[in-house]
Amino acid sequence: GDRVKGDVRILYKALGALFAERFEGWRMAVIVPDQGCEHALGMPAKRRLKIKHGGKWVYLLEL
Q1: Using CA atoms, how far apart are residues 42 and 56, in angstroms rounded to an integer?
Q2: Would you give the distance in Å from CA 41 to the centre of its chain?
Q3: Which has the closest alpha carbon to 23: 50, 53, 43?
Q4: Are 40 and 12 in contact (CB under 8 A)?
């Protein structure tokens, strides 16, 4: 994103690991700025919606 400096895929990879470890079986949704961050999550999306958020196109993922 614009507010986080550096490679945000590292953040999404850590989130994916946390979700897998602590929230297995839960339903959740995550907003990602691009498909690279979606891939970094390491979790398959059940649904993917492209939405406008803050004037930018992002993806809302149902995990």
Answers
A1: 23
A2: 6
A3: 43
A4: yes
Domain extents in the chain: 8-62
- Integer Cα distance of 2 and 60 in angstroms: 17
Neighbours of 10 (CB within 10 A): 12
Compute the Cα dihedral for 21, 30, 1, 42 and give only its sign: positive
Enumerate residues 6+ apart whose C-beta is below 8 A from 44: 63
Q: Could you tell me the two tokens for 30?
A: 């995550």
Q: pTM for this structure?
A: 0.84
Q: What is the pLDDT of residues 19-39, one digit of tens each?
A: 999 999 999 999 999 999 999
Helix (H, G, I), strand (E, B) or coil at 42: coil
Strand ranges across the sheet with 56-62: 29-32, 56-62, 47-53
